[in-house]
Protein: Phenylalanine--tRNA ligase beta subunit
Amino acid sequence: MRIPLSWLSEYVTSPTPLSAESLHDALVSVGLEEEDVHRFEVTGPVVVGEVLEFVDEPQSNGKTIRWCQVRVAPGDAEGSIRGVVCGAHNFFVGDKVVVSLPGAVLPGGFEISARKTYGHLSDGMIASAKELGLGEDHAGILRLVEMGLDPDVGTDAKELLGLDDVAVEVNVTPDRGYAMSIRGIAREYHHATGHDFVDPVTTVTPVVAQGFEVRVDDQAPIRGVPGCEVFIARSVMGIDATAPTPPFIQSRLLLAGIRSISLPVDITNYVMLEYGQPLHGYDLDRLTGGITVRRAVAGEKLTTLDDQVRTLDAEDLLITDESGPIGMAGVMGGAQTELGDSSTNVLIEAAWFDPVSIARTARRHKLPSEASKRFQRGVDPLVAEAAAQRAVDLLVAYAGGTPGELGARLIDDAVSTMPVITFEPDSVESLVGITLPHPQIEAILTDIGCEVDTTGTRAVGSWQVTPPSWRPDLEDYPTLVEEVARIAGFDSIPSVLPPAPSGAGLTPVQQAKRRITQGLAHAGLTEVLSYPFVDSGDNARCGGVSEDRQVRVANALDPQKAVLRTSLLPGLIDIAQRNVSRGLVDLALFEAGSVFLPPETLGTADIAPGAMRPDQDTIDQMNQSLPHQPWWVSGVFIGHQRPRGVDQRSESASIADALDAARTVVALAGGQLEVEQGSHPAFHPGRVATLLVAGQPIGVAGELLPTWCVERDLPRRVAAFEIDGSQLIERVGNSPHTVDSLSAMPAATQDISVVVDRSVPAATVQAAIAEGAGELLEHIVLSDEYVGEGIPEGTRSLTFALRFRADDRTLTQAEATEAKSHGVARAAELCGARLRGE
Structure:
């Protein structure tokens, strides 16, 4: 909303002249966000001049210029008459015009100076409306007589035409529609400063006119609310539609961001900005019969004021006469009854339309008009009569019209009945922490327009508060508390840090998540964050959810990435690809975050309109249809994980790096990782392992498909892991994270090589040996694998390194050998293993 200062000054008093800075400061203090300051780009000497004489002089280029003598100051003092070259021909001797003297600067940084042209020294410039920034018309000189003005020669033209005015722009939130008007901003300035405020509505006396038929026939109201509950019609007869728009109206409209069109249209826009009530003017002679407000018939057509033929929806609220639709209510009028230069009789409409209905129509037809912006935020239903009267008065004053007897007045009593709110004044302190005397709270509520009934004991009793008609956002006592805090000053709210309750802190699950992410970072991996929107094909490959089951975003910014991720790997691959393309080829990245796994049923069949609260059954269905969002951890490894150095060869990323990172994750959660041969559509079929904890799969690790990596412009070998962190933490449980104490007893080490069938996983053999070796076995690890000469075809040799230790004594070699033998026997029993060489 842009607020010209001269306009605002008519309704608020200030001991000092208003400035853009002081107004911004005041409005910010009551919650209106500062946006910008707008000015006419005209500076320096710009005055009213009188054309004394001119001579037409044809030029060799075919153009005819006028060499003019123009009086720019009263009297005959030196410099009061200037010679000016002008290329326009629409003015006459005796005309008063606007003259930009040397030293003036016009819009676009156009500096005026005395300069020689066409054989003359032109000592200034006679300006057009476009050159002054007053409009787009540059066909001729601005003749003040055509604007109804006859000022004295030498008068400051900037002040005369309002070019010295300034407009302050603020951002108005959707819940404060009343501030989309000079009336509302003046009231807010009064709240911020305490300066006197004059409500413009009180400056007019509405006249009731009857005889024009208006009917509301809304057969399909949205959410049960009638589309139109107020309709005021007033007629003005015998206007001159070609009369000039007064300069103060024209300049204020321009500063407010609305271009001047014609006097009748300018007046309706002017009153809309002043009162916040959108108006529409109809050519009364082009109306057929009376007006009916109704819903559209699906497929009905309407040519709007922008000359677009629009196909209407059954939800659209229309203004119609006997010929059919003549306007989209609250959005845009129709071309059929448009006011033109030949219009003499006008019907003014001031109505109240349902905000939800107008918002839907404006969005459906992509017509964000100034009227619809106000209607969808909520217009004061009781201001329509005053606004219509204000428009009538202006048309009479400046267009030469006469108030007509035709009119209509339809007002539903329900629309003017505001809800009574039970309000406890002590809730101000309990909700926002401001301690205010009850009389001050009452004064604030009264000042914003509320009716306050404090009957009963003021100290402990409840008040009955009725909000004003222009504040539909005040619905309950918290909104009243917010208003009290806003007017009292948000800076008066104390900053109090609430004390932490005894024993509070991170939950065991939060602690486990933090240990995992910090541990991976300490291990040398870089944590990254990716967008949750991914390509559906990559999502299906990595997450194992078919494309038709994935959660799709209806209004995705990128149509190629329009589904919610079921795996973290696609996002990590995108980040890796971006880094590799920029020359960062050695990467170890990880991400921890939510994935979105679809439930059995996505969405609900029926959802109530946006302005209605769904019933509990619908809410339960919506909650059940939401995707499951477990917490996962994933990582990728690319390039050299151990760089080349002195006596050290570089080592490329491999499945070993992914497994090491996975072991770190599981260990930090408090569990022990088990690994077995696996399969996954995103991984190399021979280099992928299933990760298990307590015998249950919780993730996968390995090397990604080389073909997929090449498609994504990555090296052929990319190692990766992915773990369902929520499932991991759940399986490990909430047991304390403990560390075994160091033993003072020496260890006994032995190796063992067994031959098993190739189909038997090494992890199974290792588990069998550990089970058979018993409690003396402290550590076992696979140290070598051999396939080839010396062992039967279809088998392989697995070598394990074992470490034995007793807590209370030094083990003998015989005890270690016996434990090892039990382990071999158990492996033979469960896996068919035998010692190599036997």
User: Anything to note?
Assistant: The mean pLDDT is 90. The two ends are 93 Å apart (CA to CA).
